[in-house]
Amino acid sequence: MIRVEIIATGNELLKGETINTTTPFMAGNLRDLGYEITRTSTLRDQPDEIIGAIREALSRADIVLLTGGLGPTPDDLTRDALAEAVSQPLEFQPDIWAEIQSYFRKTGRSVPPANMNQAYLPYHAQAVPNKHGTAPGILVSYNSQTIVALPGPPNELQSMFNESVLPYLSRNYPPQTFTMKRTFKVCGLGESHLLEKIGEVLPLVDNDRVRLSYLPKGGEVHLTLQVEGDDQHQAKEIFTPMAERINALLGADLYGLNEETLAGRVGSLLRQRGYSLATAESCTGGLAAHLVTEVPGSSDYFRGGVIAYSNEVKEKVLGVSPDTLAAVGAVSQAIACEMAEGVRNLLAADIGLSTTGFAGPEGGSPENPVGTVYIGLATPGGTSNRKLYWPGQSRYLIKLLAAKLALDYLRREISGDQADEDRG
Ligand code: ATP
Ligand code: MG
Predict the structure, then answer these.
(1) What is the mean pLDDT of the chain?
(2) What is the pLDDT of residue 204?
(3) What pLDDT sits at residue 416?
């Protein structure tokens, strides 16, 4: 296996001010391609420590990836440390300086002289182009090894990694194994329920070549199957039947695969069926509409929404009955239904979706404690609702879960194959 070490630098990473996202990003991508990540470390902005760490990594790994410290300020030390570690002088590269200057001019700013530092690279190093910032990355071939230094800002790093580093590594260090991977996404199903559902395939997991990982993420669980083989044929033989089985076992709970989002899936279903959507949100304060409109092109099916936070707005804008409000309160099945119907009429949509609940931390009632949320759904076929309850969760999480579960409820209803236990 090809061994890779990743070294992140930055005082802010050690103080916990910034969460290191670039190491897991690179490690995950490389692992998927069949590289072995043998060590990751995080260092202070301290020149001797960075030089020492690079030299040590070179004594063990084939590829060393460094992040951070390529900026123009005095705490940006990676360029010098790297040159020192491979015993090469820094050399001014006029074409890089020209690119840095043109980057500033394009963004309408004058060129700070300090940025000239960024045009110095260790002798014989290659620049890695950076579309989103001024600092180019640095790629150094050292005997049969390679060291790549990339800037710390995650958006700059990610595109440089995908567009330059990965292609370079797969050309020069072709992975010796073949990996297949698929992520199955579900919403509103806890990890343990998910495990029960797919129990049948668990004995096939060996944690070495056949792996399953679970990532709970704001009301969703992302289950990733990864199979490694010596070649494509070997990987496929295990991967394909297993992936098909997981698909079947998850059934209607599965909302999407890989990069697909819940709101994206809902959008595709609405589009396929020619339905328009309107939202009426109380406890989620617009979060469901926000999720819906995260999807490019959502104006094709999303009419709009009303944040009906007060009872007055529920009555006056959505036409919710004051008698119902007085009788059962705003957090109730009946009001969820009236809100969904109200917004469906008001905004002339095919589907109205509503949320009403107690997000806490104060409030709630004996029959509807904090964490109770009702979702209402008005469709051409009629109105339905669902009651949810998340005790002991934070206000934000309750709002997020409610918004996500509302979308998932809509998805299940319009997919037409909703499981019985999920009906409200
Ligand atoms: P700059 O030109 O912006 O200074 P740089 O290459 O010098 O880039 P740093 O100074 O280390 O990078 O970090 C720049 C920004 O990127 C900081 O806001 C920092 O918090 C963030 N950052 C750095 N390293 C990481 C990391 N490993 N994960 C997430 N964010 C990071
Ligand atoms: Mg910096």
Answers:
(1) 94
(2) 94
(3) 75
pLDDT one-digit tens code per residue, 255-293: 999 999 999 999 999 999 999 999 999 999 999 999 999
83 touches 122 (CB < 8 A): yes
Q: Check pocket membership of 68 for ligand 1, CB cut-off 6 A.
A: yes
If DSSP codes are grouped into helix, strand and coil, which group holds residue 97?
Answer: helix
Pick the more confident residue, 192 or 379: 379
β-strand pairing of 137-142 with 126-128:
antiparallel
Closest ligand by atom to 149 CA: 1
- How far away, in angstroms, is 151 Cα from ligand 2 center? 8
Please, where are the H alpha helices in 151-293? 154-160, 166-172, 191-197, 232-250, 262-273, 287-293
Q: Provide the 8-state DSSP code for 2.
A: -
Query: How many whole angstroms from 153 Cα to the centroid of ligand 2?
Result: 9
The dihedral through the CA atoms of 161, 143, 125, 71 has a sign that is positive
Residue pair 62/144 in contact by the 8 Å Cβ criterion = yes
Ligand 1 contacts CB of residue 357 (under 6 A)? no
Provide CB contacts within 8 A for 269, sequence distance 6+.
Answer: 275, 411, 414, 415
- Residue 234: CA atoms inside 13 Å, Cβ hemisphere, count? 10
- Asked whether the predicted pLDDT for residue 420 surpasses 70, the reply is no
Report which protein residue has its CA nearest ligand 1's atom 4: 71
Instruction: Name the pTM for this structure.
Output: 0.73
Q: Whose CA is nearest to atom 2 of ligand 1?
A: 71
Environment class of 104 (CB within 10 Å of its CB; exposed 0-12, middle 13-18, buried 19+): middle
Would the CB of 76 count as within 6 Å of ligand 1?
yes
What pLDDT sits at residue 134?
A: 86
